């Protein structure tokens, strides 16, 4: 792939279940619920594409989330999070998650995560073969 070619991502759609406990005093989903949704969606993305040996030996912890809220979300909404792994640098992974109700974008989230070795709980780099599973092939 040339430097000018855009990478192709293996996206992952994750259905979000909205619970009554997610609703705040204003009648819409509380901002804190979005963090839980992003964590669940990113972990689901990892579980979908990573091989079983990587699942058994690696775990992820969130380092940073930047959330841009676009529209409120309500209890009966059907919501989908679309997760993309943008890049991996060392033990860090950078994700984009878009949360939508139909065509309406409800929130956009940029997040960074650290990969850990589950035995040592120290940062761990992923093998290139594992990383490649998260990007679509030509």
Could you please describe the fold and organization of this structure?
The chain is α+β, with helices and mostly antiparallel strands. The protein has one domain (about 10-130): Hotdog Thioesterase (Thiol Ester Dehydrase, Chain A, Roll), CATH 3.10.129. It has 3 helices and 5 strands. The protein has helices at about 30-50, 50-55, 130; strands at about 10-15, 60-70, 80-90, 90-100, 105-115. A 5-stranded antiparallel beta sheet has the order 1-3-4-5-2. It is elongated. It starts with 11 loop residues before the first strand and ends in a 6-residue tail after the last helix. The model is unreliable at about 1-5 (pLDDT under 50). Belongs to the 4-hydroxybenzoyl-CoA thioesterase family. It comes from Sphingomonas glacialis. It holds the Pfam family 4HBT_2. Keywords: Hydrolase. This is Acyl-CoA thioesterase.
């Amino acid at each position: 792939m040339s430097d000018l070619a855009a990478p192709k991502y293996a996206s992952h759609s994750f259905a979000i279940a909205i619970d009554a406990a997610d609703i705040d005093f204003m009648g819409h989903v509380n901002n804190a619920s979005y963090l839980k949704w992003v964590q669940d969606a990113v972990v689901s993305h990892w579980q979908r594409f990573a091989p079983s040996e990587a699942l058994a030996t690696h775990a992820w912890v969130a380092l940073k989330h930047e959330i841009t809220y676009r529209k409120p979300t309500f209890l009966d909404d059907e919501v989908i999070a679309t997760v993309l792994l943008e890049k991996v640098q060392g033990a860090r992974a950078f994700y984009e998650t878009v949360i939508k109700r139909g065509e309406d974008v409800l929130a956009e989230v940029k997040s960074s995560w650290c990969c850990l070795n589950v035995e040592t709980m120290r940062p761990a780099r992923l093998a290139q073969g594992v990383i490649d599973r998260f990007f679509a092939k030509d």
